[in-house]
Amino acid sequence: MSGSFEKSWKKWQEEVESKNQRDYNFQTASGESVDRLYLPDHPDDDYMDKWGFPGQYPYTRGVHPNMYRGRLWTMRQFAGFGTPQETNQRFKFLLSQGQTGLSVAYDMPTLMGYDCDHELSDGEVGKCGVAVSSLKDMEDLFEGIPLEKVSVSQTINGPSVILLAFYIAVAQKQGVDISALRGTLQNDILKEYIAQKEWIFPPAESMRIITDMIEYCTEYLPKYNTISISGYHIREAGSTAVQELAFTLADGFTYVEHAIARGLDVDKFAPRLSFFFNSHLDFFEEIAKYRAARRIWSTTMKEKYGAKDPNSWKLRFHTQTAGFSLTAQQPENNIARTAFQAMAAVLGGTQSLHTNSMDETLALPSEKAVEIALRTQQLIAYETGAANVIDPLGGSWYIEELTDKIEEGARDYFRKIEDLGGVIPAIEQGYIQREIADSASEYQKLLDSKQRIMVGVNEFIKKDEKIEIPILEIGADVEEKQLAKTRALRKSRDNDKVKISLDKLSNACKGDQNVMPLLIDAANAYATLGEMVDAMKSVFGEWTETSVI
User: Model pTM?
Assistant: First the structure.
């Protein structure tokens, strides 16, 4: 063994011993003890460069020395529907069932920056997530939920800074020191231009807003993850695993570059960047993807961007099982699909996990379906043994070869994007969008020719199938309630104060003043989401995509 190996091995042992270990019986079902970590008998020169030890550079084997032996991943279930009061009750149910973090799904009007009473919101309020048009809605959403104790993830992009302002204002009203807030704001606008298409402002202006938010949170919310850089939606749009990894990390490096250009110290903000990946059904490829992601991020942050704090090198990520893989046909099969995908995420070393519900292709998840999805995570954690050993698949010849190939493919894409001038020019030229569209088309051709089987869809089909699972329905009364609530707010608030706060926000957008404090002030004045968006649109304008086909 090399001196480098021996030194790192000793360091890892010391780190593990200094960490807490879960009070749990770490044995096989037959009663055999298992070691914390398994290593090659004769490590070669590549071992330290490519794999190393968990919690040590380049973090291929995990970002924490003891991984799930010390603490299980955060179990989240994406939740949001109807009114804020209804979603509040779902949150409380999930927390009572053992969920350890909350993940908020917003409805389409909120995602696009429209109030519930906007003409384009008609028929969509509360249908695909919870309706939030104001601080009053956010207050109702988190009523009775102590924000200093619960990590909250918010899936919101175009108007993300406004929803964060609502969230900060609610915490302050609860008497919470905002420096204690934990959670994640998705806030990844680049993947919107690439895949999900829920943007408001043009790319340059959006990047200014996000950099403002990074700057503000770095100073005032040190425990809060400022961006969840999302590969999930890139994969849902039809990308390959390599494309998901490459385009996601390229987006992440773009945020890093903008923050550095602002004058921020990379080691001050980079530790609070997090990632959000898809877990698809090619079990081993997904595990290799996560390993490659950690290795690429750590080496690039250290070698290219000069980060010196090991926390800046660590890629921490949330995983959601693949919505794209769920089927309306034989929906009970989705329980098994989700279980395999969740296991891949765990074996790949995720820090938090959402498991999709079996009914999500048909409607928003029912309470029963959500409970089964959560139980799937708990089964993996407590009954499979997957959490008993750190990096149980490390050293698999297949896994390591896949990891190397995925890394190589991702770096090829980095070179192509750099040749085009970077991520934003590549988006503006439609390069990334075309690459994903081509991959989606190829995948569909394989399904159509049955070169790839999708159970219940192109093979093993049930004719005249009847769906026998409960379906959650959102009634028309949701929209009526939210409209009445918003109209009452507009009458009861101090509208002069609202106008002053919106004027100050617009003026900040014209210059280089950080917009976050102005957004929080406007939130506290009970300016609505749409009013704040309009104030910013008056300066920044809107973005229209050029066709890439």
Answer: 0.93
